[in-house]
Amino acid sequence: MTARVLIKDLSAQADGPVTVSGWVDTVRDQKKVQFVVLRDESGAVQLVNPRKTDDEGLVVADDLSTTISGLSQGSFITVTGELKHDERVKLGGIEVKLSGIEVLSHAIPETPIAADSSLDKRLDWRFLDLRNPKQNLIFRIQTTFEHALRTYWIEHDFIELHTPKLMASASESRAELFEVDYFDTKAYLAQSPQFFKQMAQSAGFGKIFEVGPAFRADPSFTSRHATEFTSIDAEISWIDSHEDVMKLHEDLMVAGFSAVKEKHGEEIKALFAVEVTVPTTPFPRIPLAEAKEIVKARGYEVPREDDDMDPEGERQIAAYVKETYGHEFVFLTDYAASIRPFYHMRHEGDQSLTNSYDLIFNGTEISTGAQREHRVDVLIEQMKDKGMEPEELDFYLDFFRYGAPSHGGFGMGLARVLMLMLHQSSIREVTYLFRGPTRLLP
Length: 442
Prior knowledge:
By secondary structure, the chain is α+β, with helices and mostly antiparallel strands. The protein contains 11 helices and 18 strands.
């Protein structure tokens, strides 16, 4: 048998014998000719089978036509036939005239989801939902984006880490933690790799990154929250301020968006009606207090009293930046110490503010970054300010008792980036298998 050819490679192949495999998308079982649209992981192609007739012109049933008539949507098949280039064929200008079909598995004829099914229903049948070319593209985009980030990191001498996700104590606070049985004690699923990223700085690694799972026991049902998500993290040594972290962050985003636009830009435009824009640098930077005043001048006052920006405020400041700078990204900087973790370094001249930022993309926060506090005596005092017991995190403080460089980094949600890049309404659309307060299947 001729080796299997991916459908995307057929157009570059000369006319002649060919073997393709995939699943049945549609069947048109007409009187004189049968058509099948076959899909694989790379695209779709039209298969054709002219029905055989007798001397009187009457259709004669044979094994091939009978097999085609019995095909149901979703059945996986391998076919052999003659590839023919024909510009009259609407689907790619090529078709395969069938000579044989091997049915690997028959699908139940009635599919449980349709194009207009609800998102929850589609997630119940995610493996079928993912056969949609639009959904398939999301995960090819994800692959390209991550590869571009890794390429940047590796070319700039970063070290990749895989930090543990089972922890003996909280990584940042005891809020939003999943507690699990661990032999004769308790463990917690990691909210982030934060402490271990910082440990790598004390270990002298210099620059590190990780792409891995994180867990938040947050009973939130918003379009941008999940209980398990993929976190993109980086940490670097010898920084002067959080400005160095922001510079790294924006360079990474440019690398990722450039790769996605180059490889998938036309497909994204066709399937999502979205033009991917590679951001220019530097990204706009606005102190949080100033951003709140800008939002207030636009007619919306952030109601929170905890010094943070709420979702509507994020949308409003993003709209302002788009109108003023023509930019989809903005760094909001100088967050209050009251709402930042104890390990964020505070302003030298104003202890109420931190050397930190949130990165807003298309109206939604996708990342938090900061310069970290590396002086152990200051860390202990900032823990106490937060009502924490330093003894509970003694292992973490050890990282700094034996010397540590100035350092900083960020954590960024992968699904949020994809959701906003593709203008999707929920991270559920761009997560392979979403996990939320009421979803543990499939």
